[in-house]
Amino acid sequence: MYKKLTIIAASLAAAVSATAGGYVHNSNQNIAYLRNPAQNAVIGVQGAYFNPAGIGFLNNGLYLSVDINTAVQQRISTTTYEPLAYGVDNNGKPYKKYVGKSFVPVLPHLDLAYKHNNWFGSFHFGVISGGGKCDYANGLGSLEAPVALVPAVINRLAGTQIITGYDVDTDLVGEQYNFSGQINLGYKISKNWSVSAGVRINVINNSYNANIKNIQFQYGGTMLPAANVLGGVISTLSGGMVSAEQGAAMAGGLVADKELDAKQSDVAFTPIISVHYKTGKFDFAARYEFNTKVRLKNDTKVNTTGIAQYEDGKEVAADIPANLNIGGTFSPRSNVRLSLGFNYYFDKQSKQYNGDTDLNDKQDYLEHNAYEILGGVEWDVNKLLTLSMGVNSNTFGFGDEARYISDMSFSTSSVSGGLGASIHVTPKISIDLAVYKTFYLNFAKDQADYGGYGEKMYSQLAPMLQGLAAANPGLGAALAGFNAESMKIPGRDEFTRKSIVAGIGVSFAF
Fold this sequence. Notes:
The protein is of the alpha+beta class. Helices cover 17% and strands 49% of the residues. A 14-stranded antiparallel beta barrel has the order 1-2-3-4-5-7-8-11-12-13-14-15-16-18. Strand 5 (193-219) and strand 6 form a beta hairpin.
């Protein structure tokens, strides 16, 4: 009997888990993007990232641009799950909002370009993904939900509301950085055509710290250590065959603190090719970035969560998807430029680690690849001032079931707008100012069995329940309808974000 009862602790402890991660691409690789995101066919020093082939149409010389962005972001998820009503801080509500806050005071970029006759080259440095810390001070629904499920299950087994509430301290802090250096070399093959090829070096470092601790249950109107409460319940359910002290020891694993302290790193290479065609008032350009194989290796100090993804020394896939970027610019007047762009990301061909299967196949959950549509306008008011503005529409292919995302890792389709100015201090020195605001759409993910916790719990509890029924025939009525289907409790996550970026930069022509 003791052996069978320990399954309670082992099975439910496995449900109290956390995952974190997700690749986020930073497109704001120059202040010019904040002013006008349609940079795919630009001719300028910022082309070191956006359009390397366009460098071939600059005048001979050396060009330098440096800038600093400041970004503020919130990731907001609202979880609706009936057992959350047991939370003593949830005021009886079966839903709760969780907010992850990120503030990046300094996000630097550098562009360097050199043109000599038909030959040219460029260098770009920036943070391609991540760039800061996201802090969920109150945890997440997927951290709290399995704790909330325990009172619901125990009360059903006991046939009464023996546990009337719970309290738990959860927190999650994630940091992601991809520092990249991009080198391109090119040749202007005619007055209309130029081509370029290069490579981006990605130095990736991520870190995750998570805690689930101090779990308490409300019993008889008093908050008590969860292990003590469960010890008494186990003793009662066993018909006194197990003492409360033995039950508390057995339940220790069920409600034990969980901790994650893990770092991940890799160095990866992205080949890049680009082409630019110029004729009259029109410019057309295309850039293709090949799929980048990324295998993040874990350096884990603590992992008591039971999550295989963060096992020390394990390598998990987090490829940077190949992407095709095309654009055009039209100058109806010498001082006005209209620009359009289209970016397509081959996400479904980019391998990602899947915690459900422990394989690198998460990309199979996507319904279609992501894409962006961009547009903008620039106006040279006079020799001293250029004004610009633009928009960007971003669409993801998560599909109705949205199995690819979770509250640990998500983005949503969005529409962004930017505006700014370039102040030409001298013919060779310009100062750029800009702000870029993103409006994220709401996206909901419904699950018939939230997190799969109900079905997983039942599959591991079933042997123990059979043992309890044999030892205590009085439990027969309580267990009559206790099956995998009845354990499923539906839930919903609603996702959105808030984001604004501002920046200042300076450009030089030598």
